[in-house]
Amino acid sequence: MWYNTPATKLLGIKIPIVQGPFGGGPSSVELVSTVSNAGGLGSFGMQSLEPEQMIEVARRIRTATGKPFAINLWMSNGEEMGSSPEDVHQAGELLRPYYAELGTEVSAKPERFIPDLGEQLDAMLEIKPPVFSFVFGIPPAAIIAACKSLGILTMGTATTAQEAIALEAAGVDCIVASGFEAGGHKGSFLRPAEESLTGTFSLIPQVVDQVRIPVIAAGGVADARGVAAALALGAHGVQIGTAFLACKESAASLPHRKALCASHSESTTLTKAFTGRLARSLPNRMTSEMSGGSSKIAPYPVQAWYMGNLGKAALIQGHDDFVSLSAGQSVSLIRHDSARELMEELVRETPKILCKYCSF
Ligand SMILES: Cc1cc2nc3c(=O)[nH]c(=O)nc-3n(C[C@H](O)[C@H](O)[C@H](O)COP(=O)(O)O)c2cc1C
């Protein structure tokens, strides 16, 4: 059967579809459990969660599904350790007029901008998820060894064949090969993201030629045609983000979901405006006013923290001008607002498309 692949065998799932993790808020227990219960692999992006929140969310996922699921964290490339007072000043000055528009002061500097990665990794080991997926690098060797001894499968994200080779050499079990069409951040870690922009169609065969572990294709897949194409290119599964983000089970804000369902693919853009790291989103006032002035954008995580607070304040006032509307290039292919229905369609239509070419 088309759905029996090395990835489904490794991950213990029935259908080779992974619901992409969403860091920073849009992940939900309902979305994860809906996809896992439908035979795929639901994933929860825990990048912004403190350890005790991670443990509580994992407990709720386990109540909602007995099937395999993934939790996802962002690795460190060292950049986030070096936020200087100048970065903080820069972010505050850049965003002050926007805060003023909302009638508020720039947020005071927090004690720390993001949760401690070491503590998050300890919580991940305590949770013992069936799958630990990650982006922006490779976990320390001791963490990969601990995952192996605890039976946690590891899934690392590559944006180039070189990154996939490095992940396999580190002992990772499975690769997510993420093309530049994908919504959200470009998780490159060997070279700057701007120098690692390869499309999914080109990336998948390059990666499967270079590694022996299962490869999951990500970026630009929103329907069964994309799943069939990725499998034909040699992928063993597909990770879908934007099309699941638009579903009612996700925790994306209502304005974000509305924008996704109203959109056209040619309108996505790559921007550092929201976090200081390159990411794909729908254009809005923030992406256009920050374009061209990227030197003024503070690095991650300083920019992410000040923009995140600005976005929350804007949403409370009912507009999405200052909010990141992450989306992949296939956003205009979105047809479902139910993750269960999307899964059903992928399972029904993918074999039909694959069969169409069997007779050639
Ligand atoms: C809002 C949003 C947040 C995301 N956050 C993460 C994340 O925290 N970790 C990660 O590995 N991938 C993250 N991604 C990438 C997705 O999991 C997935 O790989 C990608 O969306 C696939 O491309 P597509 O959007 O074209 O389907 C995010 C994507 C979006 C749209």
Question: Mind explaining what this structure looks like?
Answer:
The protein has helices at residues 6-11, 29-37, 51-64, 85-101, 117-127, 141-150, 161-169, 200-210, 224-232, 242-245, 254-261, 285-290, 302-316, 339-356; strands spanning 17-19, 42-45, 69-74, 131-135, 153-158, 174-178, 184-185, 215-218, 237-240, 269-271, 279-281. It contains 14 helices and eleven strands. The protein has a single domain (6-356), classed as TIM Barrel (Alpha-Beta Barrel), CATH 3.20.20.70. By secondary structure, it is of the alpha/beta class. It has an eight-stranded parallel sheet. The model has no long low-confidence stretch (mean pLDDT 94). Bound molecules: flavin mononucleotide.
Quickly describe the structure.
The protein is α/β, with parallel strands linked by helices and 360 residues long. It is 41% helix and 12% strand.
Helix-strand pattern, N to C?
HEHEHEHHEHEHEEHEHEHHEEHHH
CATH class: Alpha Beta
Which regions are unreliable across 5 or more consecutive residues at pLDDT < 50?
A: none
Helix content: 40-55%
Structural class: alpha/beta
Cα radius of gyration in angstroms: 19 Å
Name the strands of the widest sheet in spatial order: 1-9-8-6-5-4-3-2
For the record, the count of structural domains works out to 1
Bound molecules: flavin mononucleotide
The separation of the N and C termini measures 19 Å
Which overall shape is indicated by the principal axes computed on the Cα atoms? globular
Total strand segments: 11
Total of DSSP H or I helical runs spanning 4+ residues: 14
| Strand proportion | 5-15%
Round the mean pLDDT to the nearest integer and report it: 94
CATH superfamily: Aldolase class I
Query: In this structure, how is the largest beta sheet organized?
Result: 8 strands, parallel
- Per CATH, the architecture is Alpha-Beta Barrel
Which topology does CATH recognise? TIM Barrel
